[in-house]
């Protein structure tokens, strides 16, 4: 009888694992570091909180912090808070120069894709992912979909907040060569850009809720206070956009997103209208990852342009 019950438990666990969406997160987490974005932290939290997802692995990439090894440490802290240190974490590229280098992140993702199809969520520069599709093009078909935080429409100006900041697309601008490799791999690509997120912010109300919840939620709320204050000063908003969170929440709540499917997509030189000059001189022409039905391109992708206003409330409530 005991053996029968044990077998049933194993079968139920195996079934629940296979019925969940298998995902891989590649990110530049910085939550907990002073004056650094907390969004990758919110994304990992949602991946761990949701019962719909099976997080197969996590890899890190230069970006919010230069050293991806430090991000491995932060990730382990976040996994520990959820009692999920069983999930493997791999160090990725130190810079765009690592394109094509077999880092632990690249090897980890290759081995995971050899075992099963995965939805890959790219929340930082695309260097790790571009290395995988370059070194092992045979595995592109095992990437169910690649979600990227970035991109824009040709005709669209995505100014944010009362300061009307046009953010630079850090994940794209930080490594154009990798973006090019990814597009040319013909991977099934979905962009979740700033345009869709402009009204979806984490406010005091959300942090208060988290502060009344479990220890891990209180930790995240505490680490987000300074970041929220920065956004109040600039770009003058009541809260902050939790950018990367929406890659994970698209998988759990796709009905909340409005998207174009099969839209022509490419790296296109357009006039630089970003507020900061880090991605090229303002007014000069620079590359943007662009989606537009008026574009002539061999490549097609999906592009999400709006998120339901109640979405952030729903996601935070789903954790509690
Ligand atoms: Ca990120």
Overview of the structural elements:
It is built from twelve helices and twelve strands. It is an alpha/beta fold. The chain has one domain (22-198, 243-304): Ribonucleoside hydrolase-like (Inosine-uridine Nucleoside N-ribohydrolase, Chain A), CATH 3.90.245. The strands form two sheets. Strands 3-2-1-4-5-9-12-10-11-6 form a ten-stranded mixed beta sheet. The protein has a two-stranded antiparallel sheet with strand order 7-8. A hairpin with a 4-residue loop joins strand 7 and strand 8 (165-166). Helix 5 crosses helix 7 (176-184). The structure holds calcium ion.
Based on the model shown, name its key terms.
39% helix, Inosine-uridine Nucleoside N-ribohydrolase, Chain A, alpha/beta, 10-stranded mixed sheet, two-stranded antiparallel ribbon, 320 residues, binds calcium ion
Which ions, cofactors or small ligands are bound in this entry? calcium ion
Distance between the termini: 37 Å
Our Rg estimate from Cα atoms comes to 19 Å
- Roughly what is the average pLDDT, rounded to an integer? 93
Name the helix and strand elements from N-terminus to C-terminus, one letter apiece: HEHEHEHEHEEEEHHEHHHHEEEH
Uncertain ranges: none
Q: What's the total helix number?
A: 12
The chain-level structural class is alpha/beta
Instruction: Provide the CATH architecture.
Output: Alpha-Beta Complex
Tally of structural domains: 1
Spatial order of the strands forming the largest sheet: 3-2-1-4-5-9-12-10-11-6
Total count of strands: 12
Q: Summarize the main sheet.
A: 10 strands, mixed
Strand content: 15-25%
What is the fold named in CATH at topology level?
Inosine-uridine Nucleoside N-ribohydrolase, Chain A
Question: What coarse outline follows from CA principal-axis ratios?
Answer: globular
Percentage of residues assigned to helices: 25-40%
Going by CATH, the homologous superfamily would be Ribonucleoside hydrolase-like
CATH uppermost class: Alpha Beta
């Amino acid at each position: 009888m005991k053996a029968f019950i044990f077998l049933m438990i194993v079968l139920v666990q195996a079934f629940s694992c296979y019925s969940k969406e298998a995902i891989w997160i590649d990110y530049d987490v910085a939550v907990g570091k002073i004056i650094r974005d907390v969004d990758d932290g919110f994304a990992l939290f949602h991946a761990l909180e949701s019962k719909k997802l099976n997080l197969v692995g996590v890899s890190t990439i230069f970006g919010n912090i230069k050293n991806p090894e430090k991000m491995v440490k932060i990730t382990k802290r976040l996994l520990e808070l959820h009692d999920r240190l069983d999930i493997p974490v791999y160090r990725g590229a130190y810079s765009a120069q690592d394109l094509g280098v077999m880092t632990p992140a690249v090897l980890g993702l290759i081995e995971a894709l050899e075992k099963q199809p995965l939805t890959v969520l790219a929340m930082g520069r695309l260097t790790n992912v571009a290395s995988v599709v370059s070194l092992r093009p045979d595995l592109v078909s095992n990437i169910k979909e690649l979600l990227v935080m970035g991109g824009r429409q040709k005709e669209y100006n995505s100014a944010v907040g009362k300061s009307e900041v046009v953010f630079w697309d850090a994940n794209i601008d930080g490594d154009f060569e990798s973006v090019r490799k990814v597009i040319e791999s013909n991977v099934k690509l979905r962009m979740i850009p700033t345009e869709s997120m402009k009204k979806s912010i984490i406010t005091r109300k959300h942090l208060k809720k988290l502060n009344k919840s479990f220890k891990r939620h209180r930790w995240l709320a505490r680490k987000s206070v300074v970041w929220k204050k920065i956004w109040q000063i600039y770009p003058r908003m009541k809260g902050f956009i939790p950018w990367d969170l929406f890659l994970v929440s698209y998988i759990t709540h796709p009905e909340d997103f409005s998207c174009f499917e099969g839209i022509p997509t490419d790296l296109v030189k357009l006039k630089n209208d970003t507020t900061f000059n880090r991605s090229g001189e303002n007014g000069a022409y620079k590359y943007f990852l662009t989606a537009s039905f008026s574009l002539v391109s061999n490549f097609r992708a999906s592009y999400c342009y709006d998120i339901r206003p109640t979405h952030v409330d729903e996601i935070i409530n789903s954790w509690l």
